């Protein structure tokens, strides 16, 4: 078996192989070649697993994104996707061979982080990826959606306005607003212009018809949007609400909650700290559900990753990090002073021993080291080590990722 890089000429073979791996059939492409999820594939970053007689049996791809780290640091990262192996060749080492080949390529590109969305939660930890962000669905019964008395940043205090547009008419506005949002939100990924231009991915980047409520500030500048559609007969589904302003967020939520002839409103992707339930007079009117892992993170260069993100507490921590898939192990002294970190090899006794996948889970601040200590994933070598790690790894706000890839 050979693992080889792909070119644009391999697109059809790549897509056909991947779809067959998941027992799916292709969607008809748009006239301009866009409108399908695979239209955004970067074929110079794809891999094909090919048998000795030339048959493709496996695929893997990577997108070029930027990831926002704690502290507002924006770094390049590879979004691993389109990973599949034909049912005839599973459990023969094809997937492991592709993942090992891909990690070597990412390192050769000088990257120190990789991310993915896992189709199954049991697959990617063995390759060093750990779940780093979570998302949840919030369902609000409209007849119980009366707002709480305004006491802080609420829609009632909003000096801005909301304009209702169609998805086809406001792509550039949404792209601009999303770009501002993702630079301020830890865990958020960029959406390259070609995704918007091609209509790739899922709504609202896809060209599927959507209504879009665009929020403008007091000066008329767009600073938020909510993309939504009606799920017959009476459910309004909000794909995503994007803004960096709490008042704008409250206004957009109130806009969709006051929609006529709707029994319930479903907010598809809510961060763990979403304030909407607290903005309702009836706290129980908002029901959380479908809490799931979203972005998985893989550190390719531990010292570089740890010294690049922002930090919000001073301290020292010795981390003994095992990377069994790569056959590597390193002990690192992490020192943080005034928000700046240094990370160097050390022979000091470790404070924590952990797998590189667990380091990926805590890296963005969405999972505390103490949680993984209690779960038996991380070993704390002395009392107080987990609490010190919690203080160091916290972020300014919980990480969240909206982008599907």
Task: Give the domain tally.
Answer: 3
Assigned CATH class of the largest domain: Alpha Beta
Instruction: Look at the structure and name the CATH superfamily of the largest domain.
Output: Gcn5-related N-acetyltransferase (GNAT)
Average pLDDT, all residues: 96
**From the 3D coordinates, which CATH architecture of the largest domain would you assign?**
3-Layer(aba) Sandwich
* Morphology: globular
| CA(first)-CA(last) distance | 28 Å
Main beta sheet strand tally, sense and closure: 7 strands, mixed
CATH topology of the largest domain: Aminopeptidase
Radius of gyration: 22 Å
Number of helices: 9
Lateral strand order in the biggest sheet: 1-2-3-4-5-14-6
- Strand share of the residues? 25-35%
Helix/strand order, N-terminal first: EHEEEHEEEEHHEEEHEEEHEEEEHHEH
DSSP E strands, number: 19
Low-confidence stretches: none
Q: Describe the oligomeric state of these chains in a short phrase.
A: single chain
Structural class: alpha+beta
Helix % is 10-25%
């Amino acid at each position: 078996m050979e693992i080889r890089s792909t070119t644009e000429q391999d697109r059809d073979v790549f897509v056909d192989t991947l779809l067959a791996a998941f027992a799916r059939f292709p969607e008809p492409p748009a006239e301009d070649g866009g409108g399908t999820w695979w239209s955004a594939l970067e074929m110079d970053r794809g891999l094909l697993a090919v048998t000795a007689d030339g048959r493709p049996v496996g695929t893997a791809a990577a997108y070029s994104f930027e990831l926002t780290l704690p502290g507002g640091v924006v770094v390049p990262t590879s979004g691993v996707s389109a990973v599949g192996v034909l049912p005839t060749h599973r459990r023969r080492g094809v997937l492991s061979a592709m993942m090992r080949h891909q990690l070597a390529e990412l390192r050769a590109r000088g990257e120190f982080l990789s991310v993915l969305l896992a189709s199954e939660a049991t697959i990617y930890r063995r390759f060093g990826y750990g779940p780093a962000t979570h998302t949840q669905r919030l369902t609000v019964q409209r007849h119980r959606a009366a707002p709480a008395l305004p006491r802080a940043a609420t829609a009632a205090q909003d000096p801005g306005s909301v304009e209702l547009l169609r998805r086809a008419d406001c792509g550039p506005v949404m792209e601009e607003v999303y770009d501002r949002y993702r630079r301020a939100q830890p865990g958020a990924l960029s959406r390259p212009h070609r995704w918007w231009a091609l209509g790739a991915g899922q709504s609202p980047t896809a060209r599927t018809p959507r209504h879009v409520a665009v929020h403008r500030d007091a000066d008329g500048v767009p600073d938020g949007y909510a993309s939504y559609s009606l799920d017959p007969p009476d459910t309004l589904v909000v794909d995503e609400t994007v803004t960096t302003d709490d008042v704008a967020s409250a206004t957009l939520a109130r806009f969709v909650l006051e929609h006529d002839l709707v029994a319930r409103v479903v907010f598809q992707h809510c961060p763990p700290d979403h304030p909407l339930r607290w903005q309702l007079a009836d706290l129980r009117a908002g029901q959380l559900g479908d809490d799931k892992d979203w972005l998985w993170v893989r550190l390719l260069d531990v010292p570089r990753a740890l010294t690049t993100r922002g930090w919000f507490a001073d301290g020292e921590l010795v981390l003994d990090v095992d990377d069994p898939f790569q056959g590597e192990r390193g002990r690192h002294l992490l020192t943080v002073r005034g928000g700046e970190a240094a990370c160097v090899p050390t022979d000091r006794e470790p404070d924590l021993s952990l797998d590189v996948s667990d380091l990926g889970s805590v890296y963005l601040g969405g999972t505390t080291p103490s949680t993984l200590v209690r779960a038996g994933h991380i070993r704390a070598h002395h009392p107080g080590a987990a609490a010190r790690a919690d203080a160091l790894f916290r972020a300014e706000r919980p990480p969240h990722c909206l982008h599907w890839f």
